[in-house]
Amino acid sequence: MVTLDFHPTGRHFLQIPGPSPVPDRILRAMSLPTIDHRGPEFGVLGLRVLKGMQKIFQTRHPVVIYPASGTGAWEAALANTMSPGDHVLMYETGHFAALWQKMATRLGVKTEFLGLPGVEGWRKGVQAQLIEERLKADTAHAIKAVCVVHNETSTGATSNILAVRRAIDAAKHPALLMVDSISGLASAEYKHDEWGVDVTVSGSQKGLMLPPGISFNALSPKAIEASKTAKLPKSFWAWDEILEMNKTGYWPYTPNTNLLYGLAEAIDMLLEPAFGGLDGVFARHRRWGEGVRSAVRAWGLEIQCSEAASQSPVLTGVIMPEGVDADAVRKLIYERFDLSLGTGLGKVKGRMFRIGHLGDCNDLTLMAALSGCEMGLKLSGVKLAGSGVAAAMEYFAGHPAPVALRKAA
């Protein structure tokens, strides 16, 4: 038997940018008995989560829910809209953009990777003007889709998706716009319909506060139309059968019933009017991000995302001074203070670590995490300019939460 509950006292501090901590309320919902996925009760549950996810994506169009990770939803987005040899323009903002590009190539799609050169390209969000220039040059409209990452989990850069939509429109180009918002959804502002997105990909284990195992494709009518002539092989991922059965709240295969219980609970929590609904969620994350970044600046360390307007409300990447192994710092913090931080990935492996500030946390959760970071940095011999903990305390104390706690009865 694997020992999973290995923390001697208190709770483990899971401050990676996903999977994020799962609230007790959602864990309790998931513990309910499994029901017949062809029975009448399940149809009610199915319709409830499908309609709820339309509100989370801010769309009036269908949302497909898969029993899979976000990687599965990446594949579904491509497999349902592309044919072998189709040309796709993808923008490199970090490790996950690179993984999506690698997947597209393996599926038989011709990929073109656009972006700023070297590590510098991993310190900014999408530069929409580069997309506009490339599409204007594509006078034959060979490019069938533009794929970008909304919130790049490997770097902490959030891109302006509306600017990408406007770039495509300015080029008068018919390409589909496909967006990975796996770590952005339900944490950073996202508007599928208003921003003109054709397929949005997301997953359960970030802002939705669930374990891994559910992923999503939010669709536009244009994307559904494209799927009718797309020739890439697909069966499990195919939208047509799923959309047809979803009309009555069911799936063409066995769905992950107990995770859907948790999803229904998460939707209720995120849309709760007493806490400001989605606008309250977005404001809460923006505030947490500012508080954490105030600590990093006080330490005198660089933030991975160097573009202030693109700094993420979901996570912050912290660059180590030259000669300091970020993974050794993370290891020390984990072993001494029971705190998990995100590792650097790809081009920035060993150069930085990531602090997640999303989902089920609050000011004191983040203060504890920053305390663990500060102690670990000092024990690792990193010379700090000042106290990030003091700076974050000052920020949180001086900037009250936009939605106050409800008073006790």
TrEMBL record:
Residues noted as binding substrate in the record, renumbered to the chain: 354
Keywords for this protein: Aminotransferase, Pyridoxal phosphate, Transferase
Modified residues (N6-(pyridoxal phosphate)lysine): 206
Family the UniProt entry places it in: Belongs to the class-V pyridoxal-phosphate-dependent aminotransferase family.
GO molecular function: alanine-glyoxylate transaminase activity; L-serine-pyruvate transaminase activity
SUPFAM superfamilies attached to this UniProt entry: PLP-dependent transferases
Location of the Aminotransferase class V domain: 53-270
Cofactors: pyridoxal 5'-phosphate
Protein name: Aminotransferase class V-fold PLP-dependent enzyme
InterPro entries associated with the record: Aminotrans_V_dom, PyrdxlP-dep_Trfase, PyrdxlP-dep_Trfase_major, PyrdxlP-dep_Trfase_small, SP_NH2Trfase/AEP_transaminase
One GO process term, biological-process aspect: glycine biosynthetic process, by transamination of glyoxylate
Superkingdom assignment: Bacteria
